[in-house]
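User: Predict the complex.
Assistant: Input components as received:
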Amino acid sequence: MLSKKTQYAFHALIHLAENADKGPILISEIAQEKNISIKFLENILLELKNAGILGSKKGKGGGYYLMRAPKEIPLARIIRLLDGPIALLPCVSLNYYERCETCKNEAVCGLNEVMSKVRDATLKLLENKTLKDILTRN
Amino acid sequence: MLSKKTQYAFHALIHLAENADKGPILISEIAQEKNISIKFLENILLELKNAGILGSKKGKGGGYYLMRAPKEIPLARIIRLLDGPIALLPCVSLNYYERCETCKNEAVCGLNEVMSKVRDATLKLLENKTLKDILTRN
DNA sequence: CTATATCCTATAGTTTTTATAGGATTTATG
DNA sequence: CATAAATCCTATAAAAACTATAGGATATAG
């Protein structure tokens, strides 16, 4: 399961996308709207900003805003940033690979093969679906 | 990522399947072969037994053995048993469903839609692939 | 100058995961 | 029947990860 952190990030990004025309949005506004602890959300938005996904403005009239169009933000990007690996096993992770200590030859390991397929099927969706795809459909 | 518990379970099941002709297998043998803490493994095998996946025999000549053919044991079964939900969000989980508190209408939620697709793609593999599919290929 | 809002880093609280301990029970066998 | 071998069972400890909070630093609008 995705962590609360990542779930909150998605909800916050959705709010920012749906209010992109209103200029910078306050942390407190998002927190209230989406029922998230304001201080926890603050940390999350900061991480998104440091990753270049969000921009911010300080002081009166400040807040957070998207740095790029929703369709340019793949869901996989958010998950990897806040949750880490998407793969089910370290030995099939593309971004967080670790060699399997138990199995002698990954090329012949059946578990590795199946989990690689799971990873591919998951990534095909999460890398192609973007913030735009999770906005409320009207 | 899958927990160590689930990873150990897979390795133990593989060992049991590959030595099914040798009668009951000792916990200690599996632990040594796969480099798993013997006491931790004991708990895992017990859970698998209580779930009807393994059988056991006590006393001298005892040990654990598979209760059914490897091709009858889907990987999803093991994961759900030891790791819980396979879905990325509670609101798209088939076996551990929980209503989303933030979104007003799941039928219209884009996040729900995408994560449902991820779940389906993952389950298509994990419910159809079995212990037989992860045995070493020779 | 002041109020506002993010920035930054530390830490506290909670839950989950991983691992260990030790006695109870069952069974094979001499 | 006594003994050794093995799983059964439950509790608890140790470590790690996750969730949340705190409070001062910094930047900016007006």
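Residues 110-126 of chain A form the longest helix (17 residues).
Let me know if you want any component modeled separately.
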